[in-house]
């Protein structure tokens, strides 16, 4: 249960004003009723308890920000809101992962980000389009004649995760195992989280050693040869790069595909429009990214400061509810409506500031190619009436299951 009432708890730190407490457990989400999806939960949380910066006693006690303006201010202020510790509930400082470049602050961060910006630049990833399309067609053709599919398992996971694993040079048969390890990484259980970092670290270490001995046409090999401020990355830094790439590549796009298809399944008119005019796929994708953002990165407060009307203390953790920042009536008056004709409003789904998603061009490329092929191959579909979608709240808003059905001629 997570009833968001301002109540005083014995464990409230002295600097937290009890009137700023709103109970919210990121691992269950705000669920005012049985049917609320993670995004409905964020909307209801703001309706019931306002937008701003609030404290929750869940998961070790932390702040969360669900106000668009405050989010922009916070993510662009890495001096106060550091990325050097990003776990909720907090892991002991010596056990925090050191994923690169994500968990560095400026100025160190810039040098480590540069090689990825090159690797993921539009001109670098363009060459992937034909292989992404071939894989999308193969997967979609595999289900199109069946009149049904479990979208997550059959399309949303294998497509982006295969593209990512090939890009990295990771053997494809590890896909199910890596997804399972990634779920552990996203859990609230300390032992599972620590084990997941150890497993990914060990596996990536082996790959780094292999590529150091013999380069291949993959991202790990390019990172080994990359220039980081006039030097090469160390073995440890290379492993930390790879672990971050795994967390970025194994889940985010899976969720974007799933939320997009879950929405389309209840909007047959929109499906017909997109089928009739593929040029609308781009505005559809931007609206999908706005309406169904997924990543809520935590930050560490570096010094005592007043922010958004509350007193922050060095060492506090803060959850940046980026998807909530896109669901703000000030920026988007009818923000709940999915409207591909709306004037574009900058969204926070890829974040803003120094850590803005380095893979956003790849994400958009995969989304465009997938939806082009899906609309060309699958008739208008709907949710499976026997088996509703199952959502997965957490630091990444996601789904466990999405069965859909359509009529086969
Ligand atoms: C729709 C899909 C995606 C979404 C919504 C998304 C979202 C995000 C967000 C919000 C951040 C910032 C995290 C923070 O500030 O702490 C981020 C960072 C990052 N993303 Fe993505 N991402 C997506 C896809 C990808 C893909 C496919 C890749 C590459 C395989 C990728 C690579 C990265 C990297 C390397 C960073 C770290 C950037 C830095 O710290 O400078 N992302 N992503």
Instruction: Please write the CATH class name.
Output: Mainly Alpha
Bound molecules: protoporphyrin IX containing FE
Report the strand count: 12
Strand order of the largest sheet: 1-2-8-5-3
What can be said about the biggest beta sheet?
A: 5 strands, mixed
- Can you give the mean pLDDT? 94
* Quaternary status: single chain
Alpha plus pi helix count = 16
Number of domains: 1
Coarse morphology:
globular
Order of helices and strands: HEEHEHHHEHHHHHHHHHEEEEHHEEEE
CATH topology: Cytochrome p450
* CATH architecture assignment: Orthogonal Bundle
Percent helix: 40-55%
Distance between the termini: 46 Å
- Would you identify the regions where 5 or more consecutive residues have pLDDT less than 50? none
How is the topology of this model organized?
Layout: H1 38-49, E1 53-56, E2 62-65, H2 68-75, E3 81-82, H3 108-119, H4 122-125, H5 129-144, E4 148-150, H6 151-156, H7 158-168, H8 175-185, H9 190-213, H10 219-225, H11 235-249, H12 252-265, H13 268-276, H14 281-291, E5 298-301, E6 305-307, E7 310-312, E8 317-320, H15 322-325, H16 360-377, E9 381-383, E10 390-392, E11 398-401, E12 403-406
Parallel strand pairs: 2-8
Antiparallel strand pairs: 1-2, 3-5, 4-12, 5-8, 6-7, 9-12, 10-11
Helix pairs in contact: 5-7, 5-16, 8-9, 9-11
The site of protoporphyrin IX containing FE (HEM) has 26 residues, from helix 3, helix 11, helix 12 and helix 16.
How is this structure best described in words?
This protein has 409 residues and is of the alpha+beta class. The protein contains 16 helices and twelve strands. Strands 1-2-8-5-3 form a five-stranded mixed beta sheet. Strands 4-12-9 form a three-stranded antiparallel beta sheet. A hairpin with a 5-residue loop joins strand 1 and strand 2. It starts with 37 loop residues before the first helix and ends with a strand. The mean pLDDT is 94. It binds protoporphyrin IX containing FE.
């Amino acid at each position: 249960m997570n009833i968001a009432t301002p109540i005083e708890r014995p464990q409230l730190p002295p600097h937290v004003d009890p009137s700023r407490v709103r109970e919210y457990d990121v691992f269950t989400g705000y669920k005012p009723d049985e049917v609320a999806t993670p995004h409905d939960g964020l909307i209801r949380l703001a309706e019931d308890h306002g937008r701003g910066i609030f404290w929750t006693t869940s998961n070790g006690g932390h702040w969360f920000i669900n106000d668009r303006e405050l989010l922009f201010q916070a993510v662009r202020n890495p001096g106060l809101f550091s990325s050097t510790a990003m776990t909720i509930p907090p892991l002991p400082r010596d056990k925090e992962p050191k994923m690169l470049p994500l968990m560095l602050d400026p100025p160190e961060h810039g040098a480590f980000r540069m090689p990825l910006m090159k690797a993921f630049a539009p001109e670098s990833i363009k060459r992937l389009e034909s292989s992404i399309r071939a894989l999308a067609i193969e997967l979609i053709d595999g289900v199109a004649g069946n009149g049904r599919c479990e979208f997550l398992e059959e399309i949303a996971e294998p497509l982006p995760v295969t593209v990512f694993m090939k890009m990295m040079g990771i053997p494809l048969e590890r896909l199910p195992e890596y997804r399972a390890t990634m779920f552990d990484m996203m859990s609230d259980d300390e032992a599972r989280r620590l084990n997941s970092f150890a497993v990914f670290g060990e596996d990536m270490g082996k790959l780094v050693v292999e590529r150091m001995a013999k380069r291949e046409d993959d991202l790990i090999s390019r990172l080994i040869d990359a220039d980081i401020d006039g030097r090469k990355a160390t073995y440890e830094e290379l492993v930390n790069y790879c672990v971050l790439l795994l967390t970025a590549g194994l889940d985010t796009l899976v969720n974007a595909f799933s939320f997009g298809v879950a929405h389309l399944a209840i909007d047959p008119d929109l499906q017909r429009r997109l089928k009739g005019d593929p040029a609308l796929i781009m505005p559809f994708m931007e609206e999908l990214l706005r309406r169904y953002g997924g990543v809520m990165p935590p930050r560490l407060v570096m010094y005592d400061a007043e922010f958004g009307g509350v007193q922050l203390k060095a060492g506090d953790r803060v959850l940046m509810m980026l998807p909530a920042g896109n669901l703000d009536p000030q920026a988007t008056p009818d923000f709940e409506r999915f409207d591909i004709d709306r004037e574009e409003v900058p969204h926070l789904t890829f974040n803003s500031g120094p850590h803005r998603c380095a893979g956003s061009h790849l994400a958009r490329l995969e989304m465009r190619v997938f939806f082009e092929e899906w609309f060309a191959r699958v008739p208008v579909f709907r949710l499976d009436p026997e088996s509703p979608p199952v959502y997965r709240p957490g630091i990444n808003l996601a789904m466990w299951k999405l069965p859909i059905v359509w009529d086969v001629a």
